[in-house]
Amino acid sequence: MGELNAEVPVISPKDRSLLADLKRKLDLNQPPLCPDFYQLLETSGCIADTPLVSCFENLLLDETSHILFCIQQQNQAGVGQIINLFDQYLACLARRVPAISADANQSRLALEALRRLAFFIMQAAVQTAPQPSANSIRSAHMDGDILQQDQFEAVCNQLLQVETRQDFAILAIQFDFGLLSAEAVQQIGTEMALRLSSLVREHDLIARISVRHWALCLKNVDFPTLAILAATKIKHKFEQPFVINQLNRVISPHIGIALSHGHVGDAASLLQAAHSASVMPITHADGYQIYDVELAAEVQRLDELSVLLKKALFENTLELYYQPKYSISQGKIVALEALLRWQLPQGFIPIPVIFSLIEREGLLDKFTVWLVQTALRQLSNFLLAGMDVKLSINILPENLLDKNFSDFLAGVLNLWKVPRGRLIIEITEGSLVEGVEETLSALKKIHDFGIKISMDDFGTGYSSLSYLSRLPIDELKIDQAFIRNMLSSPREAALVRTVIELGNNFDLDLVAEGVENEEVALRLAEMGCDVIQGYWISKPIPAKQLLDWFLQDEKQVWLRLPASI
């Protein structure tokens, strides 16, 4: 029998206050819960004065230990019944909240606190509920019991038949393998099946749709809470690392949930609905997303954007905007950063959405070719016009694990006759999370070609200090989150000063991002950071506008190449 792990988030004092206030208001209205909930209790064999009902009512006073004790005393089926009742209880409370509070904002805050309470209980249930012994785990991990997609859909279609209809939930699981090679993924396939099998009941179904995509059918589920509980268990199970080539690797699952209750289509459309939820660009913070009508509209919008993105890559209608980097000591622009822009009639598409679509549609290789070719072609034009600048482009971690990437960069530089020292490759600290040794090797090869390396958003990750001495980098970029408040916050100012001193000690170039006024620029110069980037100099602008600015250069802020070059 498990015990509550310290990793389960505690209920905050603010939420405790909100929930206690809600309890006081409910107590003024009799019965404190909805009549239909008491009817449900009776049909479940419970009565209003049982300890379990008391547990529910006392939850609003943060008496969570009672319900956790009840969970610990149950078998798997009993835990499911408690969680199902708990789901009904929360739904009942949510209906009552607007009626007992005249303040719409307070109602909203109370409902948000209820949702956080629900997540707390489900996380706790995952860790405190009795776990099946090794002998009791079903044998679904055997190859014969892992269904193919057509077999999975056939069984689900039988459950949807009117005469024998059973409510169930489909969980579509998409695993994020990060930078793992195909060979490494093959090594863990059996263990992935074992982990999933250990979490499901004997009558549930598991299907392998592809190496990356799996599906579960949870029978007798007509409320989302049980499906969410299963998703939470899956997430918790896969937080345990896999051992691959003597290294620990964590495989993250993204889970979409679709309920058969109210579904009018077949099993294939229900599975597609769950899959659509699993690949949303912004999933639930806890790794799952429930499919609903609003989500369906968003999925349709993303499908349409995917078609347009493929067309934009084919027709070369994506754009690069350029933001200058300015040397305070020289009073000149010394470099540029290339930034992706995609404009449609309804406006610019957010960058996170673009990259989620690139990943979703497998367009990384095509996008990388477009990005590098476009950036270096335009840099060639800038140099021919007389600009004395370097150019930074941002690359993804996946690019660094492409064995041909450094040769590709060298080839494009030669094609557009751009000196290698003019190109700066920007990486983020996130690039070092997976495949550290492979990434370091790739960066060294790129650096050996004479290409500069910059670490972007320095200070926002976890690996900077441990790898800084090993990284072949030439430049640190101080994240704008630190720069924005440095004049008003001594703490932020101290952080900026520490990063500047660190960079100077390692003999690195320093660039401060997000500089929006002269006062910040001068303070940075006093601290020892000479190059700045931000709206005080210029917002990102298109290549033609940048060239026009350079050619006019009324304020003489551009470095110019000698006429002989």
In summary, what is this structure?
With 565 residues, the protein is an alpha/beta fold.
Structural class: alpha/beta
Gyration radius, rounded: 28 Å
Q: Gap between N and C termini, in Å? A: 76 Å
Number of domains: 3
What does this structure look like?
The protein has 565 residues and is of the alpha/beta class. The protein has three domains: 13-128; 134-291, Alpha-Beta Plaits, CATH 3.30.70; 320-552, TIM Barrel (Alpha-Beta Barrel). 48% of the residues lie in helices and 16% in strands. It has 22 helices and 18 strands. It has helices at residues 13-27, 35-43, 51-58, 64-72, 76-100, 104-128, 149-160, 182-187, 189-197, 224-237, 267-278, 293-315, 351-360, 364-384, 397-400, 405-415, 436-448, 464-468, 480-483, 490-505, 518-527, 543-552, and strands spanning 168-176, 205-208, 213-219, 242-244, 247-249, 252-259, 288-290, 319-327, 332-341, 343-344, 347-348, 390-394, 423-428, 452-458, 475-478, 509-512, 531-532, 541-542. It has an eight-stranded mixed barrel, surrounded by four helices. β6 (252-259), α11 and β7 (288-290) form a beta-alpha-beta unit. α6 packs across α10 (224-237). The chain is globular, with a radius of gyration of 28 Å. The termini are far apart. Residues 1-10, 47-51 and 128-144 have low confidence and may be disordered.
Topology overview:
Elements: H1 13-27, H2 35-43, H3 51-58, H4 64-72, H5 76-100, H6 104-128, H7 149-160, E1 168-176, H8 182-187, H9 189-197, E2 205-208, E3 213-219, H10 224-237, E4 242-244, E5 247-249, E6 252-259, H11 267-278, E7 288-290, H12 293-315, E8 319-327, E9 332-341, E10 343-344, E11 347-348, H13 351-360, H14 364-384, E12 390-394, H15 397-400, H16 405-415, E13 423-428, H17 436-448, E14 452-458, H18 464-468, E15 475-478, H19 480-483, H20 490-505, E16 509-512, H21 518-527, E17 531-532, E18 541-542, H22 543-552
Parallel strand pairs: 6-7, 9-12, 12-13, 13-14, 14-15, 15-16, 16-17
Antiparallel strand pairs: 1-3, 1-6, 2-3, 4-5, 8-9, 8-17, 8-18, 10-11
Helix pairs in contact: 1-6, 2-5, 3-4, 4-6, 5-6, 5-10, 6-10
